[in-house]
Amino acid sequence: MSTAETPTPSWYDVLDVEGSASDEQIRAAWRSGIADLDPSDRRFRLLNQAAEVLLDPRRRADHDAILAEQERDDLAPTAAPVTAPTDTPAETAGETTGEATGEATGEATDESKAAGQSRRTAPAPAIASASTAEAKQGRGAGLPVVPAWAVMVVAFLLVLSLVPAGFVLWHGDPEASAQPALAAAERAVGPVTSYDYRHLDEDAAAAHTYMTSSFAKKYDQLFAVIEENAPDTKTVVGPVEVVDSGIVRTGDDRVDVLLFINRSRTNKQVTTPDVYKDQVTLRMVRQDGEWLVDDLTTSPAS
Amino acid sequence: MRVNPLFRWILLGVLLMLLVASVVVTTAAVASRTSTPGTSSWTRFTSALTGSDPEQSERDEVRDIGSQFMLRMLSYGPSMLDSSGQMPEYRKRVTDIITSKFEVSFNDTVGVAEQLVAQSGQSRSAEVYSTGVSAMDSDSATVLVAGTFTDSYPDPSAASSSKKSGGASASPSASASASPSASPSASPTTDPSASSDDGRVQTAPVQFRVSVSVVLVDGEWKVDDYAPVTSGTDDSTVPLTPGDGSTSGSGSGGSAGSQGGTS
Questions:
Q1: Where does the record place the region Disordered (chain B) (predicted)?
Q2: Exposure check for chain B: N or C terminus, fewer CB within 10 A?
Q3: Cα-flanking dihedrals φ and ψ of residue A131, to 5°?
């Protein structure tokens, strides 16, 4: 007879106590149960196990939960009966339980009589001892099984969706750089293209803050000529007015910006400002989150 | 092996959540991508996927049309004149890339250039240095174009020594003042170093900075208008028309621009 077809006894049944028995009652039942048994007797071991479980509040609570579930499964006709994990401990327990109940049964209560029917069958105290594994099995038992192909299809779709996501995130957005770079170019063009003979060092230092280090080297070479001549000619170039601007091209971390600028100029001989109407293309590159001038191109005639 | 239904449900749930998250991230990245207003979602998606930049392609197209327009507008000479005193090839080169609306105003002014060329033998050529797009949407754009144009005239000394002048002996200054829309303050000056090997004298290059408006007509970009770029304080506001020698230059340093720092 398989355990799947028969009700399984509980540790309460083994000690012949009610489900609401107190710890003292359980101890008393255990003492009376083992009183006439030899320690090597398998029934002795079974009674010890029952007492261990029922006297441990946590394990007793787990056992009670399993019993409640068994009761629900019994009421639900499609519910799969909980079976012992192996036959050998159940059979052994069944023999010992059968003998133990035969000897330990005293005055039976209604509950004990109902439970006693199950004692004559192959019990499954091993079910209680394996409560965690069985309980987990039991929790999923009521759910329909998702077909493996459905899981595979969703997994495949996920992989398929990750490919374009990866490409999109990797490529980035070159146009997003356009406006910030243009704004930075409009701020930079004034300091980079103007100077005053009275404070050339400060002007050069200010211009450097808008340039990459590589462009700063080219700028310094040109500025060296200005530093030689401007003090004598008393040349002042500036202020610089940005009249209009536009994007030439964008790229990853690089944007070329065209600016139409008006620059005033005075010197020792020309004291009324002359306005020079220039066109300048600045190559802006992004370094450490900042847009800097990396190159400057203007009319070839210069 | 025993199947744990709960495990499969959990696995399915996690995979579905990841799938939804992946789709949401991709959609958000594509939707937030900077693009010209009016760009279709499919174009956004494919450009995001391939890393292409359709906006830059459009930008290059409108820059090219702006540049072409100024080169064609400012390139003509006596060799283009026909027997009726018109320059049909010049007219066609320009009207090919302008809207029909703009063609009306062009036809009103092209006669001035044709007359000048016929009377003085003026020839004009241009060079574009730079272009940039200051505004763009799905069917219109504004292109900044900077460059210079150079005029040449028959060398008066060569003409006076030869008695076979074809009527093209007008002096450059006289030619400039004959143009009804010329501005005296910006009349081209003769460059004494200009080569006269071909019997012509060149003027100094005159800088121009213009803003060209283009529109998309039947899938093709066409010029709809143009005007010089000036600041609020500029005193030269005469538009650049064929035959007109006045542009935005002022002062001796206005020609050909100057590099930052040296002047």
A1: 34-60, 152-202, 221-263
A2: N
A3: -60, -40
A99 touches A92 (CB < 8 A)? no
Q: B163 to chain A, minimum CA–CA distance in Å? A: 38
Cβ(A284)–Cβ(A181) below 8 Å: yes
The pLDDT tens digits for A132-182 are 544 555 556 677 888 889 999 999 999 998 888 787 776 667 677 899 999
Q: Do B209 and A260 touch (CB under 8 A)?
A: yes
Of the candidates B136, B106, B112, B138, the one whose C-alpha atom is nearest the C-alpha of residue B124 is: B112
Three-state SS for B10?
helix
- Contact at CB, B51 and A225, closer than 8 angstroms: no
Q: State whether A262 and B250 contact (CB < 8 Å).
A: no
User: Model ipTM?
Assistant: 0.72
Strand A236-251 and strand A195-196: pairing?
antiparallel
State in Å, rounded, how far the first CA of chain B is from the last one.
87
Q: Where are the domains of chain A?
A: 11-141, 175-298
> Could you read off the pLDDT of A223-262 as tens digits, one per residue?
999 999 999 999 999 899 999 999 999 987 899 999 999 9
Q: How far apart are CA A175 and CA B53, in angstroms?
A: 8
Global pTM exceeds 0.80: no
Q: What is the pLDDT of residues A257-295, one digit of tens each?
A: 999 999 999 999 998 999 999 999 999 999 999 999 999
A147 contact partners, CB below 8 Å, separation of at least 6: none
Average pLDDT over residues B179-194: 37
Q: What domains lie within chain B, and their CATH numbers?
A: 56-249 (3.10.450.540)
The distance of A245 to chain B (nearest Cα, Å) reads: 6
Please, which residues bridge with residue B62 across strands?
none
Q: Which residues contact A290 (CB under 8 A, 6 or more apart)?
A: A184
Amino acid identity, position A12: Y
Listed range (A150-159, A162-171, B40-49, B120-129) with the worst mean pLDDT: B40-49
Of A169 and B118, more confident: B118
CB contact under 8 A, A260 and B146: yes
